[in-house]
Amino acid sequence: MILVLVEHDRGVLAPASFEALTFARAFDCEVHAITLGAPADELAPYLGAYGATAVHQAHHDLLVDYGPDASADALVSLVATLKPGALMATGTDRGNEVLAHVAARLDAPFVANVTGENLDASADRWELTRIRWGGSLHERATITADVRLLTVALHAVEPTPAPAPAVATPMPFTPTIDPSAAITIVRDRVKREVGQTLATASVVVGGGRGVGSAEGFEPLEALARELGGVVGCSRAVTNNGWRNHTDQVGQTGTRIGADVYLACGISGAIQHWVGASGAKCIIAINTDAAANMVTKADYAVIGDLHEIVPAITAAIRSRRGV
Ligand SMILES: Cc1cc2nc3c(=O)[nH]c(=O)nc-3n(C[C@H](O)[C@H](O)[C@H](O)COP(=O)(O)OP(=O)(O)OC[C@H]3O[C@@H](n4cnc5c(N)ncnc54)[C@H](O)[C@@H]3O)c2cc1C
Q1: Phi, psi of 273 (to 5 degrees)
Q2: Containing H/E element for 133?
Q3: What is the pLDDT of residue 132?
Q4: Structural domain of residue 52, as residue ranges?
Q5: Could you say which of 23, 63, 149, 271 has the lowest number of CB atoms within 10 Å?
Q6: pLDDT tens column, 225-275
Q7: Whether residues 219 and 278 fall in one domain
Q8: Helix, strand or coil, per DSSP, at residue 36
């Protein structure tokens, strides 16, 4: 039997859960789902449609909102009772976080962000493919364990209802959760009204190591203001403490979808490109004509950003008669 952790946010189902259920079905064995917290109880009929024959509904005071420690304790508790052949979750931040905690508690191997073909639940060794580095690397992985822990790569599987929908029998239970798990539970949610965000801005002016310092971003801020956009940056910048991580574009930052991305003093490493490539027009400003960002950009200006960025701002202002 395969157990699938169904991700939800206070009862609102994460669509990736259907991808995980579809993936689990491909092993051609019984699939059970688990939901954590009473707010998710209503999800059972939707899970049956994707092939889950039972839904284990964990109820506990520490499962009222997301918490990786409490979630992991609940899963470990159910795994000890059911002894499934595998525990799967979504390849999301939450899915990966919770299963990493489960793996640590069980001292078991965990394969994150997998996809695969010709899957065979009865095989001792499961051959899987891991999608890594934002999709730029596909890695073959083999897992052998009493309970295989894996997350299903996001959007790697088309979520498909089961040909013969099941009636998912609700099976409520109270897991054992250590009180210390309360330390990492969402207690409150405050929505900040910040106007444009990096993810939604139509213009992003990005700065990399070439900017040189935190103060060096002032000309980029000025240009972003003129263009009605926001400032982004590379990880070299956040690593140096020049800007907050919320400004970082890339695999471990934000994926932008701007109409225009001006990448200033950024080399264009694959992890940055993964976040930048959604922009419709990319303009690189770089002293190095061979930099990845330059060769991949729609337009490039070869030169010192400290001269070029203020010059663009001045040209825009002059056209506007400011
Ligand atoms: C697991 C992992 C995840 C990562 N995630 C991310 C991520 O989310 N986002 C990210 O950005 N990176 C990420 N990285 C880091 C990434 O690999 C690069 O190290 C990083 O993007 C480099 O930043 P950079 O381009 O600013 O710096 P560099 O690579 O040092 O490039 C600086 C560029 O500035 C140019 N330059 C220098 N001076 C000037 C000047 N005066 N005028 C114009 N150009 C100038 C140089 O020619 C060069 O091209 C990740 C790495 C790993 C291993």
Answers
A1: -60, -40
A2: none
A3: 87
A4: 2-184
A5: 271
A6: 999 999 999 999 999 999 999 999 999 899 999 999 999 999 999 999 999
A7: yes
A8: strand
